[in-house]
C-alpha cells in the first residue's frame, strides 16, 4: 500500500512540474520534445527539428535569403583559404620551418626587436588567416616574405640561419609563384 501511494505521489509531482521540451543536438539545431499519449495512455516522445530563428530580425517574420553574391563571396574565400593553406602547409613542412614557427624573443636573439620592427612567424601568419586579418594572397605573400626577410636582415651572411632563411625564401618564392599562377588560371 505504501508503495502504491508513493508512486501516485511521484506521478502527481511529475504532472505538476513543467518539463523543458528543448533538447540540444550535435548540429546546434534545437529539437522540440513533445510528450503525447498513445492509445494505451503511455507517454511518447516526439522529436522534431525546429527551424533556427534568424537573430537579425526583431519580429518573427521570415527574412529574405542571403544574396547570391554573399554566398559566392564566401565560396571564393573558402577556395582562396584552401589554396593558401596548401602553401602554408608546404612552408611548415620545410626542413628549416622550425626556426620560423614561433616569434623570436630578445633572449634568443639579442637586439632583435631593435633591428626588426615588424616581427613575423608562421604561427602568427596562421592566426591571422584564421582571424580574417589576412584575406588576400598579397597579404599572405607579404607576411611570408616579411618573416624570411627579417631573418636575412638580423643575421649576418656568414651565419647558418641566414643561409637557411635564404633557402626557405627561395622555396617560398617558388610556392607563392605557383599559387599566383594557379589562382590566375582559376580566375580567382
From TrEMBL:
GO cellular component: NuA4 histone acetyltransferase complex
Name used for this protein in its record: Bromodomain-containing protein
Chain ranges of the Bromo domain: 92-162
Organism: Pararge aegeria (speckled wood butterfly)
UniProt xrefs under Gene3D superfamilies: Bromodomain-like
Record Pfam families: Bromodomain
Domain of life: Eukaryota
Stretches for region Disordered: 1-75
Kinase as UniProt keyword: no
Biased composition regions of type Basic residues, renumbered to the chain: 44-53
